[in-house]
Amino acid sequence: MATVELRFSALPEHVRTARLVAAAVARRAGVDESVLDEVRLAVGEACTRAVGLHISNGVGSPVRVALIEDEKVFSIEVGDEAPGANGALVPGARDELPEPAAEDDEAEGEMGLAVISGLVDDVEITADGQGGIIRMSWPATPTPSVP
Amino acid sequence: MDLSLSTRTVGDRTIVEVGGEIDVYTAPKLREQLVELVNDGSYHLVVDMEGVDFLDSTGLGVLVGGLKRVRAHEGSLRLVCNQERILKIFRITGLTKVFPIHSSVDDAVSATD
């Protein structure tokens, strides 16, 4: 089970909340301080993309964020419920950076994936008819918790 | 934390000082500001990002959109940024090749292509 789960209405104003929560849980999980900026940015990009997919597909359900603390790994799963929207992007999505971004506002969605791919070494993007999941992991060294 | 914007002119350049967080929620305000400046005839923009705490791809998209608009008028859009965590985002998206990035406003103002 996830350490912390977050479900939020697919609205731009809630993405910041997701970033703050993810960074706080990551810090507690023992993710290195120098990497927290990357965690914050990556989860923000994934949530921004999910919010965009929900809005453009008229999906009324919330965006899901699972923050999972394992022994030496901290993982974040961002799930959308946009039907099949991710499918075309899955092959090669993780290793290929697009050409220097197209000079167009519409390039934002692709740039989000480019940022995630460039930032996170361990990222997996899956999708089926019910929606997509971006799963990202970082090494963590938990310290004994002090009450 | 919200987005703060202020503008001033130095010669033929317009400095847009941005502070706070540029993300999917706040980026539309920056877009409006850039569109307004271009519509008012300011085609040489310097976006000072020294006060920016957070920037994501939505913000990058707005800056690219701004660049496209000023270029349509033979203008320029220069960035001022020294923060490594912000510069990194420009690097991984290849946008360091697209934007002239300067270490100070003075440097950006005196720069010519």
Automatic annotation (TrEMBL), chain A:
Gene Ontology MF terms: protein serine/threonine kinase activity
PANTHER family per the UniProt record, alphabetical: ANTI-SIGMA-F FACTOR RSBW (PTHR35526:SF3), ANTI-SIGMA-F FACTOR RSBW-RELATED (PTHR35526)
Organism from which the protein derives: Streptomyces oceani
Residue intervals of the Histidine kinase/HSP90-like ATPase domain: 8-138
UniProt keyword terms in alphabetical order: Kinase, Serine/threonine-protein kinase, Transferase
Region of interest: Disordered: 79-109
Entry keyword Transferase: yes
Keyword Kinase: yes
Pfam families, sorted: HATPase_c_2
Name under which the protein is recorded: Anti-sigma regulatory factor
Automatic annotation (TrEMBL), chain B:
Signal peptide boundaries: none
Function, as annotated: Positive regulator of sigma-B activity. Non-phosphorylated RsbV binds to RsbW, preventing its association with sigma-B. When phosphorylated, releases RsbW, which is then free to complex with and inactivate sigma-B.
Gene3D superfamilies attached to this UniProt entry: STAS domain
Ranges for domain STAS: 3-112
InterPro entries xrefs: Anti-sigma_ant (IPR003658), STAS_dom (IPR002645), STAS_dom_sf (IPR036513)
Protein family according to the UniProt entry: Belongs to the anti-sigma-factor antagonist family.
Keyword list, A-Z: Phosphoprotein
Organism: Streptomyces oceani
Claim: Transit peptide is one of the keywords in the record: no
Single GO MF annotation: anti-sigma factor antagonist activity
Lyase keyword on record: no
PROSITE patterns in alphabetical order: STAS
Pfam families xrefs: STAS
Protein name: Anti-sigma factor antagonist
